[in-house]
Fold this sequence. Notes:
single chain; alpha+beta; Alpha-Beta Plaits; 21% strand; elongated; disordered C terminus; RNA binding; pseudouridine synthase activity; PsdUridine_synth_cat_dom_sf; Trub2
Amino acid sequence: MASIPAGLFAVYKPPGVSWCRVRDAVRARLLRELNEAPEPPPRQRIRFLPAAPGAGGEPGLVPAWVPVLAEHPLVRGPRFRQLKVGAGHRLDVKASGVFGGSLPAARAWGEQAVRAGVLRGCMAVPGHPGGNKSA
């Protein structure tokens, strides 16, 4: 089975577009691109296939490597059917700016970065209450 992707990302959100639509568009594009990625080669297993009758007239079994068809994309469908995308913050519909998000395994990274104040200097506005006072 394919591994679940993880990471933090930033996307520009234009004014007039809801943050939900931006998140859904990111999710749809990630799903499409992940499913279009090249497939790993199919697993092989040994099967005993009937052999043609030999000189003795007695049919036998011959071992052969065959692909596991249960893992074929036409049988199992796309590798990724759903993907949880977290929203770091929710911008108003009229607002524009950087929309931060995360994939499930990276959620803890984002929470740690916010608690540690790593992002505070990046998003601070000089002169704004709670902004960067050193600037």
